[in-house]
Amino acid sequence: MRVKALVMIAVTLVLATTAWASSESVLYSFNSFSGDGYYPYSGLVADAKGNLYGTTQSGGVTTTPYGTVFELTLSGGIWTETILHNFIGGTTDGAYPEYSSLVFDKAGNLYGTTQYGGAKNYGTVFVLTKSGKTWTERVLHSFTNVPPDGYYPQAGLSFDSAGLLYGTTEYGGAHGAGTVFQMKGSKGKWTYKVIHGFASPGGYYPVGGLTQGMHGYYYGTTYYGGATFNAGTVYRLFQARGVWVSQTVYTFSGGASGTNPDSSLTTDAAGNLFGTTYTGGDLNLGTVFELKAGKNDKYSYRVLYSLKGNPDGNTPYYGSGVALDAKGDLFGTTYYGGTNNAGSAYELKLTTGHYKEHVLWSFGASGDGSYPRAGVILVKGKVLGTTYTGGAHSAGTVYAITP
């Protein structure tokens, strides 16, 4: 572990929106010249104490700058970064964590994926366990690209209510079009198996991860596929007599209805599903959509918002998705657009069954972060996330927005 205690950058600015003003603070600026990690592609996860955890796609130890896992802790108004792990690549460790946000298990261990590294350099699943103040990383699976195994995982992992771990690979599998895998832990050992392989012309190339829904279903998205339009799908998996079955829930048709869903899905207590598309919508700049749960596990689709560009945001990036608060409001980011064309953070506020969009923040001002590739989390009324570049050293930031 390595600790860096330089952190709260006083970039607290105010953005006037159509309804209210939001403030933003840069909590940490990554530094590519100091052995620090840099270019955070993924979002954050918080523990019960409010400490923040994430990954950087690059940086770390200068001899093996393959990315890091970091922790940010707050004390006396100052955020301090500790590097929990430097990825070293090769056959024994992962390299380059991409859009994989970390996930906690009930014991407080952290799990994630790397796109490269491992035994065959096709990516890994890893865990970080804590003993005292020391975190230790272990590779749980190295992807092989030997069917039915997949390779190059992009998305993060998820636990279901039974403690089983799920993830996706963008490529590979029996048909070369991506996989869904499951991992089961017992006494420190993990059993890995592929539970679904995608194939064209159905949905293929899953960029997002898997989300547990109601009634034993697990939901995800594919960036391409869906026969006629090849604009992507929402799929679900379930077990029938011990066999995993795949169904297409929705096929995107492009145009105003959205194209290329690229995020994991978010579900509410009623079983409704929310996500984003990379393009499509009224101006072909991306959408936020809902699949509303109906009878007999059927869903109806609607576009909640079509992104507009400038001063609005556009192009929700891989892994961004949306976060849902207790009021039913949605929060997310865009990679481009905003007043500086360096991305934005937005809220879709629910009022009497309808959503109205407000830009919470436009990134890219001097000293601010730029180009958020990940989504946000909600902690104590604040919207927290990362930017890919920008900040004091042009290597990315962790930020907090007060709506």
Task: List its salient traits.
single chain; 403 residues; mainly beta; Neuraminidase; five-stranded antiparallel sheet; 0% helix; globular
Structure report:
The protein is mostly beta strands. It has a single domain (9-21, 104-110, 117-383), classed as 6 Propeller (Neuraminidase), CATH 2.120.10. 0% of the residues lie in helices and 50% in strands. It is built from no helices and 41 strands. The protein has a 5-stranded antiparallel beta sheet with strand order 1-9-8-6-5, with no helix packed on it. A 5-stranded antiparallel beta sheet has the order 2-3-41-39-38, with no helix packed on it. It is globular and about 50 Å long. The two termini are 34 Å apart. Residues 5-19 have low confidence and may be disordered.
Short description:
Helices cover 0% and strands 50% of the residues.
Note the topology.
Layout: E1 2-4, E2 9-16, E3 21-29, E4 37-38, E5 45-46, E6 52-56, E7 58-59, E8 68-75, E9 78-86, E10 94-95, E11 103-104, E12 110-114, E13 116-117, E14 124-131, E15 134-142, E16 150-151, E17 158-159, E18 165-169, E19 171-172, E20 179-186, E21 189-197, E22 211-212, E23 218-222, E24 233-240, E25 243-251, E26 259-261, E27 266-267, E28 273-279, E29 287-293, E30 299-306, E31 313-314, E32 322-324, E33 330-334, E34 336-337, E35 344-351, E36 354-362, E37 369-370, E38 377-379, E39 382-387, E40 389-390, E41 397-402
Antiparallel strand pairs: 1-9, 2-3, 3-41, 4-7, 5-6, 6-8, 8-9, 10-13, 11-12, 12-14, 14-15, 16-19, 17-18, 18-20, 20-21, 22-23, 23-24, 24-25, 26-28, 27-28, 28-29, 29-30, 31-34, 32-33, 33-35, 35-36, 37-40, 38-39, 39-41
